[in-house]
UniProtKB/TrEMBL annotation:
The name this protein goes by in its record: BRISC and BRCA1-A complex member 2
Species name: Canna indica (Indian-shot)
GO cellular component assignments: BRISC complex; cytoplasm
Top-level taxon: Eukaryota
Chief location bin: cytoplasm
Pfam families, per database record: BRE
InterPro entries: BRE
Family matches, as PANTHER family: BRISC AND BRCA1-A COMPLEX MEMBER 2 (PTHR15189:SF7)
Localization annotation: Cytoplasm; Nucleus
BP-aspect Gene Ontology terms: cell division; chromatin organization; double-strand break repair
Record keywords, A-Z: Apoptosis, Cell cycle, Cell division, Chromatin regulator, Cytoplasm, DNA damage, DNA repair, Mitosis, Nucleus, Repeat, Ubl conjugation pathway
Taxonomic lineage from the root: Eukaryota, Viridiplantae, Streptophyta, Embryophyta, Tracheophyta
Length: 377
């Protein structure tokens, strides 16, 4: 199967601008050509973040006429989503503001503007669908929560299961990116509460609790683990407006602890230098990793420190790696991870480093023997 030809330059410029500058983490699923022996490709599938999932839309340009605005093909399950009808329904003022009204193919930002505009309309489409449901609880949740900035809601339909409504609720009114000094996160990092309600036709005085889950953008795991956060119980008769303060108070404390842990990890890495020498490399932002060079007589080896987000409650994981012994594939021989050496979270960083130094001093002869035995004969 031959590779698809490159995108037309005008089209490529617009796609690259979208991927580089959109605040959304948009992904390209595939690129292809609408013609069999075409010089350029002219269509692609975008995966666009929406309500803690992705919607996939095909963007169809015409390589022979790249100055024309593209068509956008939505998912089959959204066959009644008609954004042009929504624009027309709101009259000429909305039409004149639409990115399709005065398309300029030489402006590389036009595709990004179009995608954001369509996503906004798609969000309103789902809110309208939920608002039309004959479900008193969902109407109440929708009316009380939609004023909250950044909230998203969508209908979830299954062929053989009852319909559900999913809410995506951003938590914490704080800029996580600015809280971490020298942070290199490209996209704004957020923590969300996902709340999924079953659609019911009649209101119950004590409806079943929804399914709830914390979700975060991918880089937040460098700060702390969302999976380890224990959610408070959803009490009978509770609504989202009542539930959110409990979890946000808990998360604020966890963020404060996570930021303090970065400082503790940094002081620990700094305490390694007097004993091991300056680390060969270290993570300067989250202080999760460090590598030092050690020697015992002529035997030299590296020690890799993997420092958990729960430091100092949890101790670093150590891996020793020889700089002189290699396996049959030519890779340096390494030890199994160590996390059972003497440790107390109450020790100061200097004592932590000293006890690790003493442990490695005793262990290096065992590791040297392990390396010699592991060498190919």
């Amino acid at each position: 199967m031959s590779a698809e030809p490159p995108l037309s330059p005008y089209i490529a410029a617009q796609l690259n601008h979208l991927l580089a500058y959109s605040p959304l983490s948009v992904k390209v699923e595939q690129i292809w050509s609408g013609s069999k022996d075409a010089r350029f490709s002219d269509r692609f599938t975008l995966a666009i973040p929406f309500c803690l999932d992705y919607v996939k839309w095909d963007v169809i340009y015409n390589a022979l006429h790249p100055s024309l605005a593209p068509d956008v093909v939505f998912s089959p399950e959204d066959d009644d989503f008609n954004p042009l009808a929504d624009i027309a329904r709101e009259g000429e003022v909305r039409m004149s503001k639409s990115s399709l009204f005065d398309w300029n193919s030489k402006d590389p930002s036009r595709l990004m503007v179009l995608v954001h505009e369509l996503r906004d309309l798609y969000m309103h489409y789902h809110k309208r669908r939920v608002g039309e449901l004959d479900d008193a609880r969902l109407k109440f949740e929708l009316n009380t929560m939609l004023s909250r900035e950044g909230i998203e809601v969508c209908m979830v339909s299954f062929p053989d299961k009852p319909e559900e409504v999913k809410f995506s609720v951003p938590l914490l009114d704080m800029d996580l990116n600015k809280l971490v000094p020298a942070c290199t996160w490209r996209h704004q990092q957020k923590i969300y509460l996902q709340v999924i309600f079953p659609v019911i036709k009649s209101y119950s005085s004590a409806p079943a609790a929804p399914r709830i889950k914390l979700v975060s953008t991918s880089e937040v795991k460098s700060l702390f683990s969302i999976e380890d956060v224990k959610l408070p119980p959803w009490l009978d008769g509770m609504c989202m407006a009542e539930y959110l303060p409990f979890i946000e108070d808990n998360l604020k404390l966890l963020v404060v602890e996570a930021l303090a842990s970065i400082g503790a990890r940094r002081r620990f890495i700094e305490a390694l230098a007097p004993l091991f020498g300056r680390p060969l490399e270290a993570d300067p932002v989250f202080c999760r990793r460090a590598t030092v060079l050690c020697a015992s007589g002529p035997f030299t080896f590296l020690v890799h420190f993997s420092i958990p987000t729960q430091f100092p409650k949890q101790q670093p994981i150590l891996v020793m790696q020889s700089s002189q012994h290699f396996n049959s594939q030519g890779a340096p021989i390494s030890s199994l991870p160590f996390n059972d050496y003497p440790w107390s979270p109450r020790w100061d960083p200097q004592k932590m480093a000293e006890r690790i130094f003493e442990f490695l001093l005793d262990e290096c002869s065992n590791f040297k023997k392990f390396c010699i035995d592991a060498m190919p004969q």
